[in-house]
């Protein structure tokens, strides 16, 4: 069967949300018969595998792939899904999120008509039932429904595409571009989505934005049991390694990496702030030496992060640890956390 789109969803212990995610694909207006759904299970132990098998038995266009060992990171399941994909266009889904019903039809028609390398729309954040629209346009007054951009025409274009909308979901990619340039997700780091995004961007000549169309629902669950929502030294090291790989990847781009540095350094400092005292003592000099190795200064926007980063750069490590403990207490207050997230997407 010839499909228009292959959609890849890594799955790990998503029994409470997986059926909602799958049904959001089945109910697409483009018609489920035009979609190949590849579900890659990362050795779940909560019943997610049974759900995958149920849908794979019911639909011939649902493919279940079951890893024998848990990889612990999203890169391997996503990259494996790319290898199995048969359609000319690729999309991605997280197992606790969902697509709006017209997303596939709009993204597919746009990438075909515009002959783009990839297309992305705006999306929603659903935080405990409160829906917030996240517009992908920043510092741009263009009100058009469809905006085409050459990423490397000038610095403005590159910066416009360098904000923190790097997750693979909410986008459609030309698979030929991905395969031709050997683009995949690193399997031994975090920030693997950032790496995938910028390697795709580097090899793209035309990116299309649909800023007025919200196509994806990113659901925020505070009790998520995943590496993304667990802060420990292992995650810190995974993220730092991934961040370093991204900066190495884009080092020869002749434009400012300001937005990339702001977003990723903010994430690194957040992970650091939630470590134990013992872990922080090991992590803090790593931040110092990494930041000193960068070719471009990190100019953060948030006052608390500016203070924390300055203390680290001045080698006031003990004071930085104390400040980060206070920051962690404040951030883990649910109301403050949600406000932090909202402000972060208004920058």
Plain-language structure description:
The chain is of the alpha/beta class and 347 residues long. It has 13 helices and ten strands. Strands 1, 2, 3, 4, 5, 6, 7, 8, 9 and 10 form a ten-stranded mixed β-sheet that branches. The longest helix has 17 residues, at 233-249. The chain starts with a strand and ends with a helix. The model is unreliable at 224-229 (pLDDT under 50).
Layout of secondary structure:
Blueprint: E1 5-11, H1 18-26, E2 35-41, H2 48-58, E3 62-66, H3 75-84, E4 89-92, E5 98-99, H4 103-114, E6 118-127, E7 130-134, E8 147-149, H5 155-160, E9 171-174, H6 175-180, H7 192-202, E10 207-220, H8 233-249, H9 258-273, H10 277-292, H11 303-313, H12 317-331, H13 334-344
Parallel strand pairs: 1-2, 1-4, 2-3, 6-10
Antiparallel strand pairs: 4-9, 5-10, 6-7, 6-9, 8-10
Helix pairs in contact: 7-8, 8-9, 8-10, 9-10, 9-12, 10-12, 11-12
């Amino acid at each position: 069967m010839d499909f228009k789109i292959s959609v890849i969803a890594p799955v790990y212990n998503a029994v409470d949300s997986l059926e909602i995610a799958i049904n959001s694909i089945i109910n697409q207006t483009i018609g489920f018969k035009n979609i190949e759904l590849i579900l890659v299970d990362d050795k779940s132990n909560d019943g997610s595998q049974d759900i995958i098998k149920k849908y794979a038995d019911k639909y011939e266009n649902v493919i279940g792939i079951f890893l024998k060992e848990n990889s612990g990171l999203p890169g391997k399941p996503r990259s494996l899904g790319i290898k199995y994909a048969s359609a000319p266009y690729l999309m991605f889904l997280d197992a606790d999120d969902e697509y709006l019903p017209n997303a596939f039809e709009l993204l597919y028609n746009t990438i075909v008509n515009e002959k783009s390398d990839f297309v992305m729309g705006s999306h929603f954040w659903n935080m405990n039932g409160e829906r917030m629209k996240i517009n992908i346009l920043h510092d741009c007054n263009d009100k058009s429904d469809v905006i085409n951009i050459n990423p490397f025409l000038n610095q403005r274009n590159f910066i416009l595409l360098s904000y923190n909308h790097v997750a693979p979901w909410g986008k459609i990619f030309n698979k030929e571009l991905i395969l031709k340039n050997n683009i995949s997700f690193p399997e031994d780091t975090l920030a693997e989505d950032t790496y995938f995004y910028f390697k795709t961007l580097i090899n793209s000549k035309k990116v299309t934005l649909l800023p007025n169309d919200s196509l994806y629902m990113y659901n925020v669950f505070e009790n998520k049991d995943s590496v993304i929502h667990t802060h420990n030294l292992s995650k810190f090291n995974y993220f730092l390694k991934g961040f370093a790989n991204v900066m190495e990847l884009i080092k020869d781009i002749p434009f400012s990496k300001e937005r990339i540095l702001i977003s990723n350094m903010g994430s690194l400092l957040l992970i650091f702030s939630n470590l134990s005292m013992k872990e922080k003592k090991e992590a803090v000099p790593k931040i110092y030496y990494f930041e000193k190795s960068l070719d471009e200064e990190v100019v953060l926007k948030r006052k608390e992060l500016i203070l924390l980063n300055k203390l680290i750069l001045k080698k006031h490590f003990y004071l930085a640890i104390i400040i980060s403990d206070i920051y962690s207490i404040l951030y883990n207050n649910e109301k403050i956390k949600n406000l932090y997230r909202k402000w972060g997407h208004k920058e």
